[in-house]
């Protein structure tokens, strides 16, 4: 299971370098539909700020060890919410402007957003029970 999540996470990472494609990650599982990588500022505006659903925003970095643990854990729990919430992943090295705008000073930083407003936030790694409570509070369950 952990290997599958690691592989899914790897496949969802944006390609890098001069020959990198500019397409989005692909996949058909529920986790892929509920989680997406932010492509740029306008994508963030469209899919996060203007989202009709609550959004969990995961600010992370490739070099961050705790991010590699938290990301798949959070993706799994968001997928279990069956479409009540979506998850946006923001690489702070690729999107420094968004990190600055949302006052991200450490990674991982996770924001809970509703109707374009930040309604909750945590920094660092959390266990599954804490993450479930965070999601239930966001969804209002």
TrEMBL record:
Signal peptide (UniProt feature, chain positions): none
GO MF annotations, alphabetized: protein-disulfide reductase activity
Pfam families in the cross-refs: Thioredoxin
Keywords: Disulfide bond, Electron transport, Redox-active center, Transport
Superkingdom assignment: Eukaryota
Span of domain Thioredoxin: 24-140
GO cellular component: mitochondrion
GO biological process: cell redox homeostasis
Sequence similarity: Belongs to the thioredoxin family.
Protein name, entry field: Thioredoxin, mitochondrial
Organism: Erpornis zantholeuca
UniProt gene name: Txn2
């Amino acid at each position: 299971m952990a290997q599958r999540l690691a592989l899914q996470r790897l496949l969802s990472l944006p390609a890098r370098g001069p020959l990198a494609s500019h397409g989005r990650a692909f996949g058909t599982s529920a986790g892929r539909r509920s989680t997406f990588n932010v492509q740029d500022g306008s994508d963030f505006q469209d899919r996060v700020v203007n989202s009709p659903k609550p959004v969990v925003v995961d600010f992370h970095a490739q070099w961050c060890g705790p991010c590699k643990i938290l990301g798949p854990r959070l993706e799994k729990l968001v997928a279990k919410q069956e479409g009540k919430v979506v998850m946006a992943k923001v690489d702070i090295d690729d999107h420094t402007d968004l990190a600055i705008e949302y006052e991200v000073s450490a990674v991982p930083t996770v924001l809970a957003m509703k109707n374009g407003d930040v309604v909750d936030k945590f920094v660092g790694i959390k266990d599954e029970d804490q993450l479930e409570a965070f999601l239930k509070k966001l969804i209002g369950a």
